[in-house]
């Protein structure tokens, strides 16, 4: 998950945790999963601008990603099941398993601390 310039920092982190609980604790319709898969695939398959395609090709070459790698990645998305999503959420996204990083200003850090979230401060500069 990510959020950018979020005025609801504390609430958004709670929303992220609630979304994982929602996935794990409720029954879900496969139609919704199919629609989500189609949405992701349409983004992958959408043609880019000439500059965007050149940039994509540059990074694929730089990191050794071949067309075969892209096809394998796409197939993994197409074949995703609800059980796959739940397994990943259970393994990596539950709050007690996840790592959370926040880049914020002093007021945001204070709001997090006041909400009971334990912080470890890292100065970037």
List keywords for this structure.
125 residues; mainly alpha; Cytochrome Bc1 Complex, Chain A, domain 1
In short:
This protein has 125 residues and is an all-alpha fold. It has 6 helices and no strands. The chain has helices at residues 9-25, 30-45, 50-62, 67-78, 82-93, 106-114.
Q: Could you explain how this protein is built, in words?
A:
With 125 residues, this protein is an all-alpha fold. It has one domain (9-114): Cytochrome Bc1 Complex, Chain A, domain 1 (2-Layer Sandwich). Helix content is 63%, strand content 0%. The chain has helices at residues 9-25, 30-45, 50-62, 67-78, 82-93, 106-114. Helix 1 (9-25) packs across helix 5. It is extended, with a radius of gyration of 19 Å. The model has no long low-confidence stretch (mean pLDDT 92).
H-E string = HHHHHH
* Strand runs, count: 0
Radius of gyration: 19 Å
| CATH fold-level topology | Cytochrome Bc1 Complex, Chain A, domain 1
Task: Categorize the overall geometry.
Answer: extended
Helix and strand content put the structural class at mainly alpha
- Helix content class: 55-70%
CATH homologous superfamily placement: Metalloenzyme, LuxS/M16 peptidase-like
Number of domains: 1
Q: Could you give the distance between the termini?
A: 25 Å
**How many strands, what sense, and barrel or not for the largest sheet?**
none
Q: Low-confidence runs (pLDDT<50, min 5 residues)? A: none
CATH class: Alpha Beta
What percentage of amino acids are in beta strands?
under 5%
Query: What would CATH call the architecture?
Result: 2-Layer Sandwich
Give the helix tally. Answer: 6
Q: How much is the average pLDDT? A: 92
